[in-house]
Amino acid sequence: MMRAVIGDRMPNSRFTPCYIMVLAVGCHRDDPGTTGAAATQGAAEPSTVAPVSSIAAAASATAAPAALVPVVLVPTVFDTKEPSALHAAAPIEGCALDRVGDATATDTTEVSRTGEVHLIGWAADVANKVAPVVVIELAGAKKYFAPAVHATPRPDVAAFFNIASLRGAGWDVLAQFVNVAPGTYDVRVFEVSVAGDALVCDPKRKLSVK
Asked: Model's pTM, two decimal places?
């Protein structure tokens, strides 16, 4: 399985999330920033990394992406039930947690156990394109899981990898942490490919649940 290993900078946009509702479509995109291991809080210069040859080769055979299926975000509770499809997941690189609520994600971002927090990121296995299933894990003293949906388009990710279909690589969770014990948790991004292969990526971000 091919891994996208392209140094320690990955694409990100600081953007207003684009909610694709039943009767309305609209989004606004601000200047891009950085994410992954090189992310810093606030504005930053866009990533400038030459894709590896395998990514460029894959891009030459990639068709334009289909439109994202309309998605209405609903509150999703993190709980301790681990989906069986995630067992023995293979590590990959190529994901991010970009925003936590209205703020850009930092190394450790605080969230409340009450209310809802919109988590936004992206996940891309360039060998299999966009994974149809994305699950977010919080790993600490206990592990908690929540399914994500593909709601926010990511043209910045598609442009970075030069693979048009990765416009749909964005993931969203309208998260509720009511069942999560207070503490600090590593965020993990799990993907399940069309073939049923489980993959896991570390966006190098933590959430502090208060």
From this structure: 0.70
